[in-house]
């Protein structure tokens, strides 16, 4: 078995031990001098403190819950491995505090003299939006808080913008010449080239070439974040607007729909389902 396969198996063992409430098996995966940065207080601790924390909190978890990981990437050599990923608990009761958000983890494993791989550094955290001071990775993996758009939402309503183009090469050259931007091709069924995306404020966006959606004198499209863009599209039609394009997939980035409001403005709707 390759070292990467061993690390994948060890990560699965960590999840099985935690979800099975087998504390001794869980802590056996840590080196005695491991440093642990957790998402809940105390944020920095050693193995003994971690054992106490797990024992205290595990009693509030039901039987039969699990861990789901996404975007797992592993760098490994003969002595050290560093997987990083996002993850959350599944199978928890609705409203359980441990099931509200995804977390991100970076874990350092070192090969011991006897050949075993043990954790020497474990860093788990919840990304937050500095403007709202709220956790940024919600259960649907959207960039906002995961609540539906509309009244009562605590996130900024605009989650994405697009500038429609006819000639992508010409448009990229224009924005690069004016602003100095370098664009990144997004893997999508439509032709999308993203503006530089930076954390800390402002909506991300892209140049877009979509059949039937050409540029006009004032045709920059903003996208409102939704739980299900098909639902909001139907609501728009019922409220006097029109559906320009019904919900369709944009690959790994979810789904969009295009609607026209009562004033003739085209706006976009985005959701991950």
CATH topology of the largest domain: 2,3-Dihydroxybiphenyl 1,2-Dioxygenase, domain 1
**Assigned CATH architecture of the largest domain:** Roll
How much of the sequence lies in strands comes to 35-45%
- The top-level CATH class of the largest domain is Alpha Beta
**What portion of residues is helical?**
10-25%
Strand order of the largest sheet: 10-11-12-9-13-16-15-14
Q: Specify the biggest β-sheet.
A: 8 strands, mixed
Number of domains: 2
What is the structural class? alpha+beta
Q: Please work out how many helical segments DSSP would assign.
A: 5
Give an overview in words.
This protein is of the alpha+beta class and 273 residues long. It has two domains: 124 residues, Roll (Nuclear Transport Factor 2, Chain: A); 125 residues, 2,3-Dihydroxybiphenyl 1,2-Dioxygenase, domain 1 (Roll), CATH 3.10.180.10. The protein is 20% helix and 36% strand. It has five helices and 16 strands. The strands form three sheets. An eight-stranded mixed β-sheet has the order 10-11-12-9-13-16-15-14, with helices on one face. A six-stranded mixed β-sheet has the order 2-1-6-5-4-3. About 5% of the residues have low confidence.
